[in-house]
Specification:
mainly alpha, disordered N terminus
Length: about 150
């Protein structure tokens, strides 16, 4: 056998073993309630601005989110790691930050800064809904890409 043949045979064996391990395990998607927690966290700034006394509730919910992520969703940690490695999830995160800052800055520059309770609640609803949808869509796209990679 030549060096090329050995290298190709080793690569095939390694690839087959890796595929067998990956194909044997079932990747479960993250549940929708997890995205709702994340949506609430993205709306936390505006909820706090609307109701400053909600700080304790938001802090408790953030703690529940952290504990749930580390316990209940422990088996889905591999999917979360894969999602964060992908460019799509990072683009979503940066896009949400840009949406938050950009919209507040644009409205402030136009003299229409959001200062009232209704405005902050509106922003909270829009940010939460946008976050939930984009994270759900990003997961769906990533799972399709993973499934296509296995085939």
């Amino acid at each position: 056998m030549t060096t090329e043949t050995i290298t190709a045979a080793e690569a095939t064996t390694t690839r087959t073993a890796g595929t067998a391990v990956e194909a044997g395990e079932e990747i479960k998607p993250l549940p929708t309630w997890f995205f709702c927690f994340e949506g609430l966290m993205s709306a936390a700034y505006d909820l706090f601005k609307a109701y400053p006394q909600s700080l304790w509730v938001l802090g408790a919910l953030a703690l529940v989110n952290l504990v749930a992520s580390l316990t209940v969703l422990r088996s889905r940690l591999k999917l979360a790691k894969r999602l964060w490695r992908g460019k799509g999830t990072r683009k979503i995160a940066l896009g949400l930050v840009a949406l938050r800052l950009g919209s507040h800055l644009a409205l402030g520059a136009a003299g229409l800064a959001v200062t009232g309770v209704a405005g902050h609640l509106g922003f909270a609803v829009v940010m939460a809904a946008t976050t939930v949808y984009l994270l759900w869509f990003g997961q769906r796209a990533a799972l399709r890409a993973i499934a296509a990679g296995r085939a």
